[in-house]
Every structure is written in C-alpha cells, then in structure tokens.
Amino acid sequence: MRIPYTGSLPAPNIIPRNANTVRGAIAALVKFLTAPPSPSLQHGIAAGDPSSTVILSGAGISVASGLADYRGTNGTYRVNKTYRPIYYHEFLANHEARKRYWARSFLGWTNLHKARPNTAHHAVRNLGDLGLVRSVVTQNVDSFHPVAHPNLPTLELHGYLRALTCVSCHNDLPREAFQEALSRLNPAWAAFLVEAIASGALDTENPDERRAKGMKTNPDGDVDLPGAPYTTFRYPACPHCLASPPVSGHGTQAIVEVDEEGAWKPTSTAGILKPAVVMFGESIAKEVKEAAEQSIDGSGRLLVLGTSLATYSAWRLAKRAHERGMPIGILNLGGVRGEDAFFQKLPMGQTGEAGVRVELGTDKVLPGLVEQLERSGLVSKVDNPNSTQEEQANSRVFRDMLS
After folding, report:
1. Which residues bind Zn(2+) (predicted)?
2. Is 29 annotated as a binding residue?
3. What's the pTM?
4. What does each of the 403 residues of the chain score in pLDDT, given as a tens digit?
5. For the domain bounded by 17-65+118-158+284-399, which CATH number is listed?
6. What's the Cα-to-Cα distance from 236 to each of 48, 266, 268, 403, rounded to whole Å?
C-alpha cells in the first residue's frame, strides 16, 4: 500500500487563457457560476438544481489558515521526505504504533486547534448566500467549512479531527478532552510542548527548520525527547467502554483495563480510541459515499478548490461529474490528477461558462470573485439567512455523518 501521487503532477493548461491573472480568473469564474445549465448535462440521475454548483475542496484551501497541504511546494510530502502516515490496520493492531501516533498528534493538535477559517472559506459561505453553491464536499478534516458556513451543507468526506471515536462502542469523545488527558498522562511531553510552542518549532513542517529552532529529531523526523521516548507515551481508554465494557459478537464481555492514572493497558481487548477520520487503508462508510454522490448528482456544475484529486475518493467524484456532463472548474496551485480529460471537449471560444482552470491561491481569487458577483447585479443574496429547516437538517446530517 502506498501514498498516491507524492511527487509533482504535470503543470496545468490555464482555461481560458486570460485566467492566468486574478482579474482574468475572476471574470472566468463569474461566467462559470452564472451560466445557464449545460446542454450536455444528464438529467434524471437525481433530483436537484442544474443551475447550482457543488464545491469539492482539499488541503489547499486551508493553507492560508496556516496549515500545511500535502503535495504543494511546501507540502508535507515535499518538505518531509521521511513522512509516513500510520495505516488503519497498524493503528488497530499495534499498541506501540498507537503510542507513536498519539505522541505526534499531541504535538500537532495545538496548531490546528488555534487555526481559523480564512477568507476563502468565508467566500464559500458568501457564494452559498448568493444562491450559487448548493453544498460542499471536503476532504479536509480541520472542520473549517462547517465553522465558516454552518447553514451551507458540508459533507466531510474523510471525517474530522475535532473528535475521537471508539472502535468498540463507536461513541465520540471531544478532542479537547482527549488532549487534556494526554497532557495529564505525559507530563514530560506536556512541558516539551510548551517549549516547542514558545520557540516556534511547531510552526513548520520542515525537519531542518525545526532542528534550527531547537527541536531535536531523529532521521525519520520523530522528536528526540531525552528521558521520554515514544515507547513511554500513554493514552486513555474510551470512558464509555471503561465504565461498561462492551459485549462482543460472540457474547463474551470485553476487557478494558487502565493503570493507576487512567492509561489504556495492552491487556485490554476493547476501548481503543481513534481519530474520527478515515485513515489510510480504511474504507469510507457507504452512507458517506452515497451522500457525496448525491451532492454531485444534485448540482449542475462542479468547482474544485485546493486539491490535486490525488486520492481516489475525491477523483472519482470529479470523474462522476464529468461523466454526467457537468462543467468543471478547478482552482488549484499545481497539477491535478487526470485533469486534461475534464477539458478535452470544451467549445471553441468559451470564456469560462463550460470550464475553468486557474492556478492561483483560493484566498487570492475567491474573495474578489464574491465582490465582483455582488457588483455585477447578476445574482443577489438569498433571503433566508437562517436557512430552511430542511437545509439545517441536511447540514447536521452531513456534519454528523461519521460521528
């Protein structure tokens, strides 16, 4: 099993040609979002609004919030060549692997927790308020979309980091409470985290820059903390399973044991908490896949923001949109998986209504796009700032899909 497309993808062809500047990109995207439904759009697959847009977003939209992307110039896979994510089967089977994962996660959580949605996320909200965007499907696990636009339905395709879920009882635990437990169980790591935050060592993904700021790391990028190696890191058990151990499918009661301070013990047979995200090697839940497909089928065009579509779960949605005859717009720095196929049969002389490809940052383009749309008089805000009960219900379903 390998991580897909960790290298550079081929550079894109800008469509239309004048979309190589912010001004040109905005003009093309105005045409894209306000054009009549495409005559090639296949109807009857699902009920929806053929004049509306569904957004598919990725890590690139959150870079302006201070988070790293994966495959960009300063992305995790580019600046940290030794980076290797943990796989789902490893996490479930290996207590030592979980120690290492949670130690790394303990250090990394602070940056995510203090980060906030940026102007691009708020522009997506405004596009929803203008009645142009029907829903958002995001690969991101940072929760920025539902925070920035709670009334615009968001499907978090790969889950979210704001909570953990128990692999035994499937109850959730807020990440803040879990972080506090990790700090209590690992005082040496907690003290180190305070020092690392003060030095700014956690503000970069680059191992060399971290070492320059005083964070000692091993060749594989792991933190070298004297007197507190990864093997000593401890994590709590699921409180629900600890209070009431679950019964297995064979009718036997599981064992959940903790040490005197509340750390999970390897003699346990249940009570393992995992992040509420889809890990490498883990399957996306069937209902989430179906909800993502319905989001595509219920709209008339697809706008891809800040993603190379390297993961199959995202690429297949763009492929589905293309096969339905939906116009596709892409706003992403760097190449995108299989993107040439999306733009092969565009009409000669089209200026954005049938397809757009822009290689600029989402935070550089989307706020200006909203301003231009509002000035143009082509659209106006939808007169339901609190959203309908149906939209609120849909939003809750999307947000809670993996909880």
Report:
1. 166, 169, 238, 241
2. no
3. 0.88
4. 455 555 678 999 999 999 999 999 999 999 999 999 999 887 655 557 999 999 999 999 999 998 876 555 555 545 455 566 889 999 999 999 999 999 989 998 988 999 999 999 999 999 999 999 999 999 999 999 999 999 999 999 999 999 999 999 999 999 999 999 999 999 999 998 998 888 887 777 666 776 777 666 554 445 656 667 889 999 999 999 999 999 987 889 999 999 999 999 999 999 999 999 999 999 999 999 999 999 999 999 999 999 999 999 999 999 999 999 999 999 999 999 999 999 999 999 999 999 999 999 999 999 999 999 999 988 988 765 444 444 444 444 344 433 3
5. 3.40.50.1220
6. 45, 11, 12, 19
Catalytic pick among 121, 145, 149, 158? 158
92 carries a ligand binding annotation: no
φ/ψ region of 163 (left if φ > 0, alpha if ψ in -120 to 50, else beta) reads: beta
Q: Is 59 annotated as a binding residue?
A: no
The sign of the torsion formed by the CA atoms of 61, 67, 70, 71 equals: positive
Q: Is 158 a catalytic residue?
A: yes
Domain segments of the chain as ranges: 17-65+118-158+284-399, 76-116+162-277
Does the annotation list 241 as a binding residue?
A: yes
Per-residue buried b or exposed e for 43-54, using 16+ beta carbons within 10 Å of the residue's own CB: eeeeebeebbbb
